[in-house]
Write a structure and sequence with these properties.
The protein is mainly alpha-helical. The protein is built from 6 helices and 4 strands.
Length: about 160
């Protein structure tokens, strides 16, 4: 899920598309259902790729689907009950950086332990706090131009 690329950590395209799609469903929750074709068009990606993403989201209970000619997808829970962590974990699995590993014989075992405690554990903790603390409703409100108190924000 978190990938290193050119010295920075990034959420994969699959994770980003899943988040965008889920926010789109949250923003359009008044609609009964949204088709994958609509979501694919807005994201400029293939329906086939979205089918894979939505299969994972459906298995996690984050979306529900209605089959048939008038079918489509809608959120499986309220947007304030779905976190970024829920979405990313559904499509990517565990988001944490793997533990630092040094063999028992390694002379640098103490350094490895220090790296684990002060860097890797801390990155995992902070990342977990961020992605578990942001809901689809937060993202939908941000997209819609509302702050966290629900007041409209106006830009000049």
């Amino acid at each position: 899920m978190l990938h290193r690329n050119g010295g920075s950590m990034k959420i994969s395209k699959k994770g980003r598309y899943a988040l965008r799609s889920m926010v789109y469903l949250a923003v359009n929750k008044k609609e009964e259902k949204i088709t994958l074709n609509d979501i694919a068009k807005i994201n400029d990606i293939s329906v086939k790729y979205l089918e894979q993403i939505f299969s994972s989201l459906r298995r996690a209970g984050l979306v529900k689907s209605i089959h048939g000619i008038n079918g489509g997808y809608f959120l499986g829970r309220l947007p304030e009950e779905i976190t970024v962590e829920d979405v990313l974990t559904a499509v990517e699995g565990d988001y944490r950086i793997e533990d630092e590993v040094a063999s028992e014989e390694c002379m640098l075992k103490g350094i490895s332990n220090a790296v684990q405690r002060l860097v890797i554990d801390e990155i995992n903790r902070v990342t977990g706090e961020v992605i578990s603390g942001v809901s689809l409703q937060d993202l939908a409100d941000e997209y819609s131009g509302k702050d966290r108190d629900g007041d409209e924000m106006y830009y000049i």
